[in-house]
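My main concern about presentation is that the manuscript never shows what a single data entry looks like. An entry of this sort, consisting of the sequence and the corresponding backbone structure tokens, reads as follows:
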Amino acid sequence: MENNRYREEEKEMDVAPETEIVEETKEVESDMSEENKKNKKHKKNHLYEENQALKKENAELKDQLLRNLAELENFKKRTNEERIKDRKYALADFLMQLIDTLDIFDKAVNKQTDDEKLKQFLDGFAMINKSFKQILERNGVKPIEALGKPFDPAYHSAIETVEVEGTDSNIVVEELMTGYIYKDRVLRPSMVKVSK
């Protein structure tokens, strides 16, 4: 019996402290759950703010990326257009120098003389001169027609204005130096006299 009583006391002792512990644990848990709730709420707010900041940064980066892509495309187009122009007009400087030489050759060929031997030489040079002009024309170089045409500052360079009876004003009346066009670009404007 004593054993039984001892066991009952033990049980009571065991039960009492356990109940106290459970009650204390519940109090602590409730305090902790309040604190956890606050922490969770604070964490949630912090995560929400961080999420919003990341979304904003993402949108800015996307915008910057699109701008950079557009800039790159424009750069590619410009570079491609410049490359095409460079290829198209690659011979322009060379042809300009050739035209200057051709002008000198023209003056020599068109020189009037009474000497028969010199006339024969000049006839040969005239054929070479004509051949040069044909080569230039095949390569896109054409003389600008100026005489009798209205003055156009894009194609003509007026050296002098003169009064000519029976001619309207602003008409090219004399061509001092032939101008040339290479493809669709003026290599050299025609030097002209224009009526007043």
Remarks:
- Residues 2-88 form the longest helix (87 residues).
- Strands lie at 141-143, 156-162, 172-177, 180-182, 185-188, 190-195.
- The helical segments are 2-88, 92-109, 116-138.
- DSSP finds three helices and six strands in the chain.
